[in-house]
Model the fold of this input.
Amino acid sequence: MSDVFEALIALASGFGTTFKHLFRRPITESYPEYKRPLPARSRARIILTRDPDGEERCVACYLCSAACPVSCISMQSTEREDGRRYAIWFRINFARCIYCGLCEEACPTSAIQLTPDYEFCERDILKMVAEKENLLVAHCGKDPEYNFYRYAGITTAGAGKGQHIKESNPVDVKSILP
Ligand code: SF4
Ligand code: SF4
Done:
């Protein structure tokens, strides 16, 4: 008898929930008419940003490529006359990318960044391969202040070793020998 009673309570509770929702306004959002704003840290389209001086941030160190679990980043490094490195070409295969963000975590210069823009699917999978000219943007992205070469521990066109922001003078290794 108690089983029948419990079943009736469960049935009444289920119908009660249904009845309650009959009088609620639907919360359907019509896409693409309405595009829900996403947080800035959402992980979708990848860009290559510039530093505050307008220079390419990427120094073609290959760290993002090494960190990528699906091996969808490739590039070729080269150097300018002033010694500054950059990628002569840089390619991301978005058809393989799983938008994990590990490339962004690995990047020492804040060059590679994921953005909330998720609207870039293609019918032709080959069009999902993005070259440097498709990736490089004219702004600093999420990191408007950072300029790697002002903090760099190497001699650059801007300053020598130990003269960059928050940089200590190089240590004479012989002075710390036991
Ligand atoms: S988001 Fe992840 S999968 Fe996509 S390129 Fe970066 S590391 Fe590779
Ligand atoms: S995007 Fe960043 S991690 Fe990748 S090669 Fe350029 S500087 Fe290195």
